[in-house]
Each structure stands twice: as structure tokens, then as C-alpha cells.
Write a structure and sequence with these properties.
Elements lengths: L14 E5 L6 E2 L2 E2 L3 H15 L3 E5 L15 H11 L4 E3 L6 H6 L6 E4 L9
Parallel strand pairs: 1-4, 4-6, 5-6
Antiparallel strand pairs: 2-3
């Protein structure tokens, strides 16, 4: 059985939850190597080109609770630069992401804060 790629599946006009590996090296809020971010760009642009809304999940490090040095905010800002569009950053799990996502226009991108900040992760 062959594996399907994203090109083999018809995905358009959907809300797409996508788990990516943005576990990049960050020191003093600066990304040292953004290879993992750059490698996702073709897939993200492909999905955006099909009029999808993207909800991006990732983790960063192994924080013990919420620790700003493990925030994905710098990653979000870099992603915004590479996609050349706004990426909405949801930094608190206490907010209701569903209601925020429901109000987005197609083609929008949302990134959730480090899922390891969530006690249930």
C-alpha cells in the first residue's frame, strides 16, 4: 500500500488543523535556526492556495508549565514573514479557540501557543 501525500487528497474550503514540528532553537527570543519553519512553507502555501483556514499546533522544548522562554511567539512572527500574511497567535488556552476560528475568513492562519503549556497535553 502506498502512502498518500497532501497532493492526493482534495482539501479545499476547510478548517485544517495541522501539527508541525516547530521545535526550533531559540536563545533570548531569537530563532537560531529556522529550517523546520521553512520546510513547512510549501505545504502551508499549498493549503492556503486551496482556500483553507489553517490552525497550527506545535510544541517547543519541555517546559515545566507556562514559561515565556518556550513561547512560540517568535516562531509565529517568523512564519508570518515567510507566508507574507498575518498569523493570528492564540496565547492562552483559557480562551475559546473555536469561537475565534469560526469568525476567521477563509485563507486565514492561526497558531496556538506551545501545546506543552496546556496541562492536558
Amino acid at each position: 500500500m502506498s502512502k498518500l501525500s497532501i497532493l492526493d487528497v482534495k482539501i479545499s474550503n476547510k478548517n485544517v488543523l495541522i501539527r508541525v514540528d516547530f521545535n526550533v532553537s531559540i536563545h533570548d527570543g531569537k530563532i537560531l535556526d529556522d529550517t523546520r519553519i521553512r520546510e513547512t512553507i510549501p505545504t502551508l502555501k499549498y493549503l492556503l492556495g486551496k482556500n483553507n483556514t489553517l490552525i497550527i499546533l506545535s510544541h517547543l522544548g519541555r517546559p515545566k508549565g507556562q514559561d515565556e522562554k518556550y513561547s512560540l511567539k517568535p516562531v509565529c512572527l517568523r512564519l508570518q514573514k515567510y507566508l507574507n500574511q498575518e498569523v493570528l497567535f492564540i496565547n492562552q488556552f483559557k480562551k475559546d479557540p473555536k469561537s475565534i476560528i469560526a469568525r476567521l475568513k477563509k485563507g486565514s492562519v492561526v497558531m496556538l501557543e506551545n501545546i506543552r503549556f496546556n496541562p492536558g497535553e
